[in-house]
Design brief:
Glutamine Phosphoribosylpyrophosphate, subunit 1, domain 1; single chain; 6-stranded antiparallel sheet; alpha+beta
Length: 630
């Protein structure tokens, strides 16, 4: 796991100085070493977090004739199998790293190499002879890649936006379209980031640069294909086999691997299946916000366990560090909790297992029950639904069954844009001084267009797989772990697991109040029944409670008086949202937190003279090894 950056097509005499500044900005991603490559058309930078082949895995890495130059962030879990195959074809290797396997795979297959990879990655390969750059990001979007196409044809790229900000040719400007979308989704959902002109390479996409021209195209799009011809027992066998193998290959490491552990089925399964010794949890004071009390005592799961109870003061202080490392505003309150569990784990290990992806693949979110509960209304003739909808829309908000009828008579494409829907278009028009307030369904339309043939639950899953998973879940997993120089691995998001899970039918995923039916059956072979069947809780954070306390409400009021609030928001609307929440009239906690997270981010990147002061100090490998052996 590492941090990469680069400039191609620059012709800049200061390239060496600039690339080192870019590398320094992401030192936390790789405190164990660094490397650069410079020629007349390219400058590549690398920061290393040493996980595999500790003595020989330095980058940039070259092929035999040194024509190809690689900088790579991630892990290729099937590198040993690929390496054996490439050796049979006559390739000569100089080390045991997965990085060199990538280079030889590119030599052998060209861009078609991507279909052979099993892992998480964001990488760039510079062809010195052709003066051509090739970049790619893994299909799930586990690892980030950002890029800035300058007007003069120069391409600047990096694992994090803060690295690109060090490029002298880029001038910071807030992308207000991103703010509009963020207020609904709670994360940066557009291809163009919050920094105008800087883009994210989308999951399953690759980019080619040559002579100032850029081509970006998809090479793999996540999709579901329910198959009723394959028996549930056969699907169960395939998923069980794929999961076991995924855990096995994800354990490949030359340093110790630990695991996060909540009281839920996903992390508990990984702890039991991997048999790792160290596990890590965090919680908050209060019964409803602390899963630590519910951790199973099963010795197959709970071994050497470490946990922390986060105080409100710690949480509110950490948001500043979290938003700096996030690069873009993220209003998922659990991201700050993740910051603390990553910090805890980094005291003991360099690699940790995490359960992201299980809900999206196996049908774990409670919202996936909605199409089943709305079925009676959906079955009505269109003319009847139209009359019902008109009647309920004109009725008062307290009318019994109003929300049920409205949702049941509204097409799926117009009511579901993912797991979060914070502000409606109408609410945004009142809130934003710009008067913007676009519909979120303009964003999700491409996925809905291509999955028309699927059932409603699968269509919802595909929205989450393509937007929520990379934009929120995996973004916070990567940024919060790397802030502490920790590699987070996600065994559920494996190519073989995905291929086995994508053919599940609705009946094998959700029924009644239960979710992830088939996966829970598999997990029950390793876990106590109470853990395997425990309903999804998420990561509860007491934001709602805190924002009804003057001490924390005042922090929001202070932010509402700041430059960012004055520039973008109607502050009377903000004050009304806060007052209604404090008085118990409405639960506006998520709306308020969404705005506050943006204002914190804006203050760091657009009001502070030294954003880097919020960085977490990176810890090199030598310190971790010394701490664990004294």
């Amino acid at each position: 796991m590492c941090g990469i950056c680069g400039i191609v097509g620059h012709g800049n005499k200061n390239a060496n100085t600039v690339i080192h500044a870019m590398m320094d900005a992401i030192r936390h991603r790789g405190p164990d070493g660094e490397g650069t490559f410079l020629d007349e058309k390219a400058a590549l930078g690398f920061r290393r977090l040493a996980i595999l082949d500790l003595d020989h895995g330095d980058q940039p890495m070259y092929n035999e004739d040194q024509n190809l130059v690689l900088v790579f962030n991630g892990e290729i879990y099937n590198y040993k199998e690929l390496r054996s195959h490439l050796l049979e074809k006559g390739h000569v290797f100089s080390n045991q790293s997965d990085s060199e396997t990538l280079l030889h795979a590119f030599e052998e297959y060209g861009t078609a190499m991507l279909k052979h990879l099993r892992g998480m990655y964001g990488f760039a390969i510079w062809n010195r002879e052709k003066k051509e750059l090739f970049m790619a990001r893994d299909p799930f979007g586990i690892k980030p890649v950002y890029y800035y196409p300058a007007a003069d044809g120069t391409l600047v790229f990096a694992s994090e936006i803060k690295s690109i900000l060090k490029y002298p040719g880029y001038q910071k400007q807030v992308n207000e379209k991103a703010l509009d979308a963020y207020l609904t989704f709670q994360y940066s959902v557009l291809e163009e980031t919050f920094f105008q002109g800087i883009y994210k390479l989308l999951p399953g996409h690759c980019l080619t640069w040559k002579e100032g021209r850029i081509e970006v195209k998809p090479y793999e799009i996540l999709s579901l294909t329910p198959d009723r011809k394959v028996s549930s027992e056969e699907k169960r066998r395939r998923i069980k086999t794929a999961l076991a193998d995924s855990v096995k290959v994800h354990l490949r490491s030359d340093v110790e691997v630990g695991t996060f552990l909540s009281s839920g089925v996903d992390s508990s399964y990984l702890a039991a299946a991997s048999n790792v010794q160290k596990s890590f949890s965090v919680g908050f004071e209060g019964e409803h916000y602390n899963e630590l009390k519910d951790l199973t005592a099963d010795p197959n799961v709970l071994k050497e366990h470490h946990e922390k109870c986060i105080t409100p003061e710690e949480y509110w202080e950490a948001i500043w560090h979290a938003m700096y490392h996030m690069d873009e505003p993220l209003a998922d309150a659990s991201a700050i909790a993740l910051y603390f569990v990553d910090e805890l784990a980094a005291e003991y290990v360099k690699v940790v297992f995490s359960g992201e992806g299980s809900d999206e693949l196996f049908g774990g979110y409670p919202i996936y029950h909605e199409p089943l509960s709305l079925a009676p209304v959906n079955a009505l003739p269109k003319r009847v639904k139209k009359r019902l909808l008109a009647r309920m829309q004109s009725a008062g908000p307290s009318r019994r069954g109003r929300n049920y009828i409205i949702r049941g008579t509204t097409p799926l494409e117009e009511r579901f844009c993912g797991n979060a829907k914070i502000f409606t278009a109408e609410e945004k028009k009142a809130l934003l001084l710009s008067g913007q307030g676009t519909s979120p369904y303009e964003v999700t339309r491409p996925v809905y267009e291509r999955n028309k043939g699927l059932g409603p639950v699968e269509r919802m899953q595909e929205i989450d797989l393509n937007y929520w998973l990379p934009g929120d879940i995996l973004l916070k997993a990567d940024k919060m772990s790397m802030a502490h120089s920790l590699e987070s691995r996600v065994p559920f998001l494996d190519r073989e697991v995905y291929e086995a899970a994508r053919i599940l039918t609705v009946k094998e995923k959700v029924k009644g109040s239960q979710t992830k039916l088939l996966f829970r059956e598999i997990a029950s072979e390793l876990l106590p029944p109470a853990t395997a069947q425990k309903p999804k809780l998420g990561f509860p954070v007491p934001i709602r409670v805190w924002l009804r306390q003057p001490e924390y409400a005042d922090r929001l009021r202070e932010a509402f008086e700041g430059e960012g609030a004055k520039r973008y928001f109607n502050r009377e609307v903000l004050e009304r949202l806060l007052c209604d929440h404090m008085e118990g009239k409405e639960d506006n906690s998520r709306k308020l937190w969404t705005v506050y997270s943006f204002l914190v981010w804006h203050k760091i990147f657009f009001e502070s003279e030294k954003p880097d002061e919020y960085a977490v100090k990176a810890k090199p490998l030598s310190l971790l090894l010394a701490r664990n052996h004294r």
